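Structure first, sequence second, as always.
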């Protein structure tokens, strides 16, 4: 499998960043910061837009993958939601997960305006999700 280079101007992940931002407000800024943390956590992560629909301006939802979907980033009126595809199987020592806690598979983090982004804990969670994906593909 060919490794994508998200730093190339014409790569899908580079283009996605410009397309999936909500209008210039706190949500756009936070989603941009989340994107940077994800890229710092895993240089081989790819990003692509999925699930284009009128409610997201046909821009789609950014989906980050490495050996499978790691997480998504959706913007809502009052929140930015990061959903981890296999979040129920991840250790969360910093207690970042605060949404979708009742499910058997996914877990999410809802960020609201003014919330602090714990970059160190988020990087650790992203790295754990990538490691889980990699271990699942070896089975």
């Amino acid at each position: 499998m060919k490794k994508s280079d998200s730093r190339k101007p014409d790569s899908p992940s580079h283009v996605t960043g410009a397309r999936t931002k909500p209008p210039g407000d706190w949500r756009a800024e936070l989603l941009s910061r989340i994107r940077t943390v994800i890229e710092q956590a895993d240089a081989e992560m790819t990003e692509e837009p999925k699930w284009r629909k009128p409610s997201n301006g046909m821009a789609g939802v950014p989906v980050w993958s490495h050996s499978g979907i790691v997480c998504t980033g959706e913007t809502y009126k009052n929140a930015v939601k990061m959903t981890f595809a296999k979040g129920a199987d991840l250790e969360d020592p910093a207690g970042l997960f605060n949404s979708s806690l009742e499910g058997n598979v996914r877990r999410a983090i809802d960020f609201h305006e003014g919330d602090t982004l714990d970059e160190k804990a988020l990087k650790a969670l992203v790295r754990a999700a990538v490691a889980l994906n990699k271990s699942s593909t070896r089975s």
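Margin note: The first strand starts at residue 46 and ends at 50.
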